[in-house]
Every structure is written in structure tokens, then in C-alpha cells.
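Continuing the series of single-chain predictions for the mutant panel. This is the parent chain; the variants come on the following pages.
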Amino acid sequence: MKKRYVVIFCLLVMLVIVGCKEGTVGIKPSLSAAGKTISLSSDKSTVEAGGVATITANSDSVNKFRWTVLETNPACYIAYGSTGNAGRGPVVTNPVLIRGTREGTCTVTVRDDASTDPKTQVVTYVLNVRALTTPTVKPSPAVKSSETNVQTCNDKYNTKNQGQYKEMACGADPKCKWNTTNGICETRDVYNPIEELARRSVDLDQVCSQKSFKMAFIIVTPKGTTVSKESLSEINLIKSEFSKDFNYATNGLASMDTSYPIQIMEINNEDVNNNEANLKKFYETNPDIFDFISIYGDNGINPTIAGGDHLPIQNKVNGIGIRIFDDTSYFSSSGKLKGVNSMLDLSKNEYTLNNKFEWGKGLLHETGHQWCCSVGDNFKGDKTGKLEIIQQYIHFYRGLESPYETGTPMGSDYWVSNGDGTYYRANDLNKLLKYHPFQLYFMGLLPKSEYGTKFKIYDAGGADTGRDFNFNNATFYKEVSVNDIIVVEGERKCAA
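Parent structure:
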């Protein structure tokens, strides 16, 4: 298990540190350690939401290209498979079609699918996505006001060439509603902002100070197959343990209800990462009451390309380094769902009580990405960056002091003095983990009396220093508190 997690970490590091280039029609090829080159070209550097760009990989030595979308909350997806949506991938094809979903940027990666070399070249392309431009429709003077609203929704989402985005866009428009029977977009009889808040089940104060959460578990398996008894036993253990792990990780300040029955979904293999379609199917027979959904695989289906992935669906909190957004309607939730965890294939990764710490760490880690870790700059080690408590823009820097001898789920480590002014990492890997106090702050759980507590940062190399990690002879760098985070990011508060 330890070896597998080391490989996973190395893969994540490799993916994130690859230099991203601004979206252009052509990208200069780069050279891998093995001397192979892949170059990318795209027919578009910018697409509208709903539009498609065709990205082509070229190489004299690589024949099979494996594509993924890098971000945890991308502005695009891979248009591939039976439903035309493979999510973030991976898929093996060439060229690849990338469809934009909303305004922003989308980082697409490609590598040699046939290579087993851990230093295999990973090339990236940044596609720009701009908001969909919808022309204003002027109603006929002879039409009544109620009919005018119907015509507006109809014109916006039925007669325009938006494909599968009609239903998503219609559902996200507070003045419109999607008629599933007739497959058209209709107006709401009367638009009432108060009723709209109730419809979307969004109470901002409750969302921002939430302490009780619910998580559903799904097993996806190829069509025509049966989930094994062993896998069901494993996920039942994961469920029961995670409820306790989460409460422990938050110092008893929050709870995670995992009691809902496990849901089994038969899907096409190529749709394993199509969260949009899979969650739509889930909500057809299950209530919209969950903050998180964790998806595991069985019978050879692996929902993750690493040890796990987290897809944030919404964020309503300022001051934690994450933009304000709400993509719940795209995933068939009425405003409740916060994030989706894509986890391992149960049939290939046995869960036992002997390795429950590894499984618990994995799920705590992915769930923790809902709030962490995006504040300030990556650690540079030259005193020019802001805060410098993170690396890869999604994890805590390894040199950030953990107050617990186990380290923490999001990456900070426990450091012990060598007695000569240097420090070594001494994580106890056989105990349950707790979230760092900074993480508890991002979650809205940390008491204000602890905002001034300082935590040391040790320069252990790695991150953006240009040096290799050194976990045996790190040196003291500086100290940071929650109050320092507030100076950089502003106070944690609910978005208006």
C-alpha cells in the first residue's frame, strides 16, 4: 500500500509541475527524459461554453495518446464515449474533442499510454472558454406577459444549437424550468426569489457554517456484471469507518453521516468518469440530500487515474482561496451537492482492517479538497511568495508543521529536531489522521481563539524551490497563523 501511494504522489507531482502554456493554436514540443517528444495543436485557442475544440497530438515515436483534464473543477470535459462525455478522462484516442462548459480555462494533458516509465513526458494545453453569448429576444407587443416569459425561455434554450446543454442551462436559469416529459424549457409561472432559494435548498448561513454532513457511496460496475461480496464487504467497512474517521479528523467538531445504503450502478466502461451522466442517473432514484458522493469501482472499472480525485461542485465561502461558483445544476442537484470523490477499484485494491489507515487517509484527503488547499502561493523558499504553506496549488506544503505526530491528510508533516539546527520528518503512519488547524479554519470549524497560533514552516526543498525534497535535513523558514492567512485572503465569510 505504501509503495502504491508513493507512486500516486509522484504521478500527481509530475502532472502539476509540468509547465502550462497559454492556449494557442500550436505548442512547441518538449523533450521527455526518454527522449520522446509529443507536440500539440488545436483548431481553436478559445471556445464558447458548449463549443468544441479539436486538439491533436503529434509524435514520431508515440502511437497511443492518453488524455486527461487536469483541474479538479475544470471549465470543460472530454467529448468522448457513448454519451459524448468522458468527464476528465482518461481516454485513449487522437485527436481529442474538448467541450467547454463555462467561462474559465481548462488544462488538457496528454502522455504516452504505452509507457511504464514514471518519467514519461506529460504535455499540457490550456484551452480558454468564454461565456455563451445569447442574443436578446424582443417579445411581440401582441403577446401577453406570461406568454412572453414562455417565449423567452423557449428561445433561449430550445431553438438555439446548444445540444445537451439545453437542459443544464434551462435548469440553472431561475426564471425557467425543464420539462422532462416534453424535453423543452418552460417558464416558471411566477419568479419569486424567496421560492427560488427554497427550490435550490441553499441557505447560505447554513452552508457556510455547516457542521453536519451526509455522504452517499456508489459502486460502478460494467454492464452485465455483479458486484462481488468481497467488494460489498469492503465498502461497508469503509462507510462505517469513515464516519468515525471524519469526526476524529475534525477534533469532534463535525460529523459525516454515511448511513445511506450503498448504490450499485451498471455503466459502460467508457462512462466511468462521466460524473454528469452518472449523477443524473443516481438522482433519478435517490434523494438530493447529500453533501458528498464517493464513487468506487468494481470488476475492473477504476474511477480514478491516481489514488483518488475530488471534483468540487460548488463553493459559497470567500477567504479560502477558492473561487465562488455553483455547478450543482450541471450534476442534477438542486444546490445541495458540494463535491464528488472518485476512488479506487475495489476488486484491485483490497480493503482490510490492517490497511484501513491508508483507505481512511485517501477518503479524508479527497473530501478535504473541498476546502483545501489554495491560499497564497506555492512554497518557493526565497521569501517572495505569499504565505507559502501550499504546494501544487492543491496540497499543504510538506514543510508546514503538523501539530500531530501523524502528519495531516492534506500533506503537512510532523518534524523533529536533529539537534544541529536541522529537522527530519517523523510521521507515524500507523495512526488515524487529523486535519490541520488551517484546514479546520477553511471549514469554518476552528475557534477564533486559535487564529493567532503560529505554525512553523521548514524548508524541505521541493515545491517551487527548484530543489529536490530533503526530508532529513530541513531548516526553519518562518511561522504562519490563521491571522496571516486572513491578511492575504481576507476574512473567511459567506458569499453574498
